[in-house]
Design brief:
Structural class: mainly beta
Protein name: Cadherin-86C
Distance between the termini: 72 Å
Subcellular location: Membrane
Helix content: under 10%
CATH superfamily of the largest domain: Cadherins
Order of helices and strands: EEEEEEEEEEEEEEEHH
Oligomer: single chain
Pfam family, one: Cadherin
Main location: membrane
CATH class of the largest domain: Mainly Beta
GO biological process, one term: homophilic cell adhesion via plasma membrane adhesion molecules
Shape: elongated
């Protein structure tokens, strides 16, 4: 049991009329609590249903009576503020990140920043730090531990023995962890591509007529962009004849 508060009440009457007993605790979480009738100790019996992210504090009333709990009564109000437990791990805003290198391989074509959030309350339990934990090609990638922005500390050196113009698709694993106890974390993949990635063509087969697909071009582009994780432009919409496939 966890002690929440110790109440003390006095009565100026003499004899049994002056004997105070603590007779009731009322409020939305009264069922989670125990009030000792003699000592006035208010303790937490169970944390079931308590969630600081949902309801951070409660207002309760404690009742005391004289005459050994049978006489006149008075009540005191108590505010219970829940401490934050580190019960949420960080979550990344995207399931995967993609980036394209500049032709000189010194930096990214567009700024690259991974972002995560933590649903715990303000403080160490929701303070996030970022780090690269795997795939740091040639050990040249850096990440700002506070902002999650990725950069290169030196140009990448192509390997002529590999395909894709000497530079493979690089997959970094980035971890976001909080400062709570226990530490909770999440990871995400970051795929780094060369310039050819910008010009890649993909064919999509969808169950729509050419007319309806054309009318919904923007909607389809948004959907395919979300599906692939890259910006998609539909260059042409044409009838697909499955009978010509081998």
């Amino acid at each position: 049991m966890f002690l929440i508060n110790l109440f003390q009440a006095t009565d100026e009457d003499s004899g049994s009329y002056g004997v105070v007993r603590y007779t009731a605790v009322n409020g939305p979480i009264a069922g989670n609590l125990r009030l000792d009738p003699v000592s006035g100790e208010l303790t937490l019996l169970s944390g079931e249903g308590l969630d600081r992210e949902r309801i951070p504090e409660y207002t309760l009333t404690v009742e005391a009576r004289d005459d050994q709990g049978k006489g006149n009564r008075n009540m005191a109000e108590v505010h219970v503020i829940l401490a934050d437990a580190n019960d949420n791990a960080p979550l990344f805003l995207q399931p995967r990140y993609d980036a394209v290198l500049n032709p000189d391989m010194r930096n990214f074509y567009e700024p690259l920043r991974v972002q995560a959030y933590d649903a715990d309350g303000p403080g160490p339990n929701s303070d996030i730090t970022y780090e690269i934990v795997n795939g740091n090609y040639q050990e040249k990638f850096l990440i700002d531990p506070q902002t999650g922005e990725l950069s290169l500390q030196a140009p990448l050196v192509p390997n002529p023995e590999t395909q894709d113009h000497g530079l493979p698709v690089i997959t970094l694993t980035v971890r976001a962890h909080d400062q709570g106890v226990p530490v909770r974390f999440a990871t995400v993949k970051v795929q780094v591509h060369n310039q050819e990635y910008l010009n890649r063509s993909i064919s999509f087969i969808i169950p729509l007529s050419v007319k309806k697909a054309s009318e919904r071009r923007q909607e389809l582009e948004r959907g395919f962009s979300a599906l692939t994780g890259a910006h998609v432009n539909l260059h042409s919409i044409a009838f697909h004849n499955s009978s010509t496939e081998k």
